[in-house]
From TrEMBL:
SUPFAM superfamilies: Thioesterase/thiol ester dehydrase-isomerase
InterPro entries named in the record: HotDog_dom_sf (IPR029069), Thioestr_dom (IPR006683)
Pfam families xref list: 4HBT
Start and end residues of each Thioesterase domain: 31-113
CDD domains attached to this UniProt entry: 4HBT
Organism: Gordonia hydrophobica
Protein name, entry field: Hotdog domain-containing protein
Phylogenetic classification of the source organism: Bacteria, Bacillati, Actinomycetota, Actinomycetes, Mycobacteriales
């Protein structure tokens, strides 16, 4: 397989970038983005990014000898988003530890940050014991850019 960094020029999702447009199903009756949509888009961005870099989250045990377990997630809203807004979700490297990592998600409309999310994962072995992040996964995590925005 080629270097994950080389894929980013030709495939934005390999670099953790996912663009989308809101529809009525993403919004409440006033046309304002429903808070739960951010979790769907974070998961879609994360799993698509992993897949574009040669990893499937559901097959990590067979491929790397570990599983990842979601520990926490959150979304902090900074601007109102409404139906038909075009957003970009950019996965960013928040924290990479020895046996867990946090992927951040910056949702932007143009150059404006509208929501900042995060998902933290723990790495476990087949017996569900704590395990170190495998080097292949660590290498892929290392391709994520640092956060572009500071949030309080």
């Amino acid at each position: 397989m080629s270097d994950p960094g080389e894929q980013h020029q030709s495939d934005p999702i390999a670099g953790g970038t996912l663009d989308f447009q809101l529809a009525y199903g993403d919004c409440d009756v006033l046309g304002i983005a429903y808070f739960g949509i951010y979790y769907r888009w974070m998961e879609r961005c994360y799993t698509s990014w992993l897949f574009a870099n040669g990893l499937r989250s559901g097959e990590l045990l067979a491929d790397l000898g570990v599983i990842t377990v979601g520990l926490s997630s959150s979304a902090q809203y900074t601007q109102t988003v409404t139906v038909f807004d075009r957003l970009r979700c950019q996965a960013v490297a928040d924290r990479i530890g020895a046996s867990s990592y946090t992927v951040g998600f910056e949702f932007t409309r143009g150059d404006e940050l509208v929501t900042r999310g995060q998902m933290t994962f723990a790495v476990r072995d087949a017996d569900f014991g704590k395990a170190p992040i495998p080097q292949r996964l660590r290498d892929v995590l290392g391709t994520l850019p640092p956060p572009s925005f500071e949030t309080p």
